[in-house]
């Protein structure tokens, strides 16, 4: 099997299986010779060579959903969940960033650099229909509920990508991009979407770049429930002369950028650590000083909120007029769930256990990355000053009142931060 790989509206290469060497990738001669093209990934620089399976699969594998969702989709397709090419063929129309993949032996619609909001590209969907899709996801994964809508979103959680214009929801068609991601709650953690909403809303008080998010109440004939909804930071909406156009922005997570399989996203499984992420930013970012400071704040905030699942796939880079750190995302206070691990995804000062880590461990870790301790101290001081305002973030909003016990647990975790030596 051979897949044509597109970035924006350009065919950049081909991903195909070989009889002896597994899956390999090659950029096209034209893409290599054309000026100002960007690579798929830092780990796959534009070169006229054949990238081996070891070199290319971490990037492409990282586009796919993980865990039970991936297995459900594979079962629906009657293929092995290890069949990366077949999964990408089925799901690769709408991935993170600007990449799209198509079976080279079949007819397909070539992607555009931008899409206009019209009936050809977007189909109206009611809140009731969204609710029905989500409630049906135990039978059919949401990502695969419309076979014409070839959607792949990395991660282990159910989600649906839709577009929102003027307050109404739409299913993208003909390769058009989505603008929002909706995440229903999980059966095992029924309030995790609310947790993410609280955590991301609090993050806006501490961090510079946090996407807009909200809680959407969905109803059908029998049920009413809340879901987490977030704007996609890898999409750009342009209002031009009474028309609306949508563009994709290329992105990759740090596992992809470092050529690490998403199955190894945790540091103790071979995934990225703080030093690897900071070194990559120093060497590749178009604004390294700004992005190193943002990264420091991301790491400290995830510790503050008690997010032990901030692994290498939950930090990303955007390719948009240079390479920049992406906004913060997938922030959840995992420590409020007693049965979840209290080990961080990345080691700080030689420790994974969140309860053993203090400010001095951050200073030790960042100093080894060449960062002056004054910068770390100033960041901690800024965070200390902002903690006092946390109770005002939600100011008795209906959602805070409805889920007040969960919010209290998160605030208790944050207040522990002040007590750190």
TrEMBL record:
InterPro entries from the UniProt entry: HipA-like_C (IPR012893), HipA_N1 (IPR017508), HipA_Ser/Thr_kinase (IPR052028)
Keywords from the UniProt entry: Kinase, Transferase
GO cellular component: cytosol
Domain of life of the native organism: Bacteria
MF-aspect GO terms: protein serine/threonine kinase activity
Domain HipA-like C-terminal: 151-387
Domain HipA N-terminal subdomain: 3-101
Similarity comment: family membership: Belongs to the HipA Ser/Thr kinase family.
NCBIfam families from the UniProt entry: couple_hipA
Annotated protein name in UniProt: Type II toxin-antitoxin system HipA family toxin
Organism: Treponema peruense
């Amino acid at each position: 099997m051979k897949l044509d790989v597109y970035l924006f509206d350009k065919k950049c290469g081909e991903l195909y299986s070989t009889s002896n060497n597994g899956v390999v990738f090659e950029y096209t001669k034209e893409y290599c010779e054309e000026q100002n093209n960007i690579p798929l990934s830092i780990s796959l620089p534009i070169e006229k060579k054949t990238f081996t399976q070891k070199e290319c699969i971490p990037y492409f594998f990282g586009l796919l959903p993980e865990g039970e969702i991936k297995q459900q989709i594979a079962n629906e397709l009657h293929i092995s969940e290890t069949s990366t090419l077949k999964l990408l063929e089925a799901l690769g129309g709408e991935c993170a960033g600007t990449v799209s993949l198509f079976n080279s032996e079949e007819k397909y619609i070539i992607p555009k650099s931008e899409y206009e909001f019209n009936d050809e590209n977007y189909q109206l969907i009611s809140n009731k229909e969204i609710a029905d899709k989500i409630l049906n996801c135990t039978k059919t994964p949401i990502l695969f509920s419309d076979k014409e809508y070839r959607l792949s979103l990395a991660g282990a959680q159910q989600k649906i990508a839709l577009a929102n214009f003027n307050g109404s929801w739409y299913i993208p068609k003909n390769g058009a991009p989505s603008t929002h991601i909706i995440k229903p709650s999980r059966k095992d953690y029924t309030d995790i979407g609310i947790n993410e909403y609280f955590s991301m809303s609090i993050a806006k008080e501490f961090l510079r770049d946090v996407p807009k998010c909200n809680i959407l109440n969905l109803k059908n004939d029998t049920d009413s429930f809340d879901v987490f909804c977030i704007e996609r930071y890898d999409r750009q909406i342009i209002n031009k002369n009474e028309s609306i156009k949508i563009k994709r922005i290329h992105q990759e997570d740090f596992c992809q950028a470092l050529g690490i399989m998403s199955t190894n996203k945790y540091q103790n499984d071979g995934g990225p650590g703080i030093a690897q992420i900071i070194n990559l930013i120093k060497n590749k970012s178009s604004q390294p000083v700004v992005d190193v400071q943002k990264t420091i704040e991301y790491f400290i905030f995830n510790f503050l909120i008690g997010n032990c699942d901030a692994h290498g796939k939950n930090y990303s880079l955007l390719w948009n007029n240079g390479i920049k750190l992406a906004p913060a995302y997938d922030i959840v206070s995992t420590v409020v769930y007693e049965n979840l691990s209290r080990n961080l995804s990345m080691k700080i000062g030689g420790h994974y256990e969140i309860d053993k880590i203090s400010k001095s461990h951050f200073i030790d870790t960042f100093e080894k990355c060449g960062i002056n301790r004054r910068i770390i101290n100033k960041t901690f001081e800024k965070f200390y000053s902002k903690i006092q305002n946390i109770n005002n973030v939600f100011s008795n909003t209906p959602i805070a009142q409805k889920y007040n016990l969960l919010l209290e647990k998160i605030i208790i975790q944050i207040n522990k931060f002040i007590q750190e030596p």
